[in-house]
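so my prof wants the structure for this chain in the tokens format not the other one, which i didnt know existed until like an hour ago. anyway here's the sequence
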Amino acid sequence: MIGIRRLIRPGVPADAYWMQGLVGALLTLGLFAVVPNHALPMALAVLVGVVGMPHGGVDHLTGSVLLAPVAGRYWPLAFVTGYTLVMAVVVAGWIWFPLLILVGFVLLSAVHFGMADNSPHTPGGLALTMLEGGMVVWVPALFHPAEFTRLLTWVVPGNRWPEYILFDPSLRAGLCLALGITVARAVGSSAFTAIRVVGFAVLFAVAPPLVSFAIYFCGWHSVVELTRLAQHADPSDLVTGFGKVVMAAAPLSGLAVLLAVIGWGVMSADGPLTPGIVQAVFVGLSVVAVPHMLLHLVTVRQNVNPFTTEGPR
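here's what i got, hopefully its the right format
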């Protein structure tokens, strides 16, 4: 059996990640269990703004570590320019090539989530890592094709292709095979990996797609990433580390919360989810998420600690 330490970056205590991620996922699950349907838009907006976005609020620190040795005191200009340029490309992609940008965003998200949940040393390579990281998308597509199709047509209106693709028997058979491979890989890795993967597979299969995504993204992914950042900020004291992360992420996180509140006002607290709302939220998240995910790839590959003055190791 592969030890739990193989599931995370070497040298960091395992329980600091998965225990808090497990608690976060369970608390988020409990929240959605008691939130009435009419308050779902408010809950989604606030949860994503307050919990889901802040782990990207320290990207500027990573930019400092990566760019300061090259650009010197001008690193903020280089960082903002590059970050903004990527965001502009994503916006342009949604305008002129929406299907292409949708597929690219889903694939990049699968890489990001898969790498966040697995060590680079986990057996199987990038393909299986992406398969597991993409569960949050393709498992709901398998078990909730009608609801998933509706959401896709909201995000990319005017395209009826999901109605044919997601109900295609060959594709559904392939997704079933992918699920079997993903679960088998997890069972062969460690007890916790099996529990985590099977647990999320059941969640994605049972819960509505938007709810299951919010539980995974906010309750698990963001909590795990915040814990990792706290470990980087202060390896000897997790609580102190969290304090440093909160202070560093406060400016960008505050902006995210403000946008969430504005979004809630636009939606109205008791209004239903509409195509326009879903499209705006999805596109908005992708615009800020793509530069973060690309930066995360560099961070992992070069083992960058954003809370240090040292460069990549």
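also thought this was worth mentioning. The chain is about 75% helix and 0% strand.
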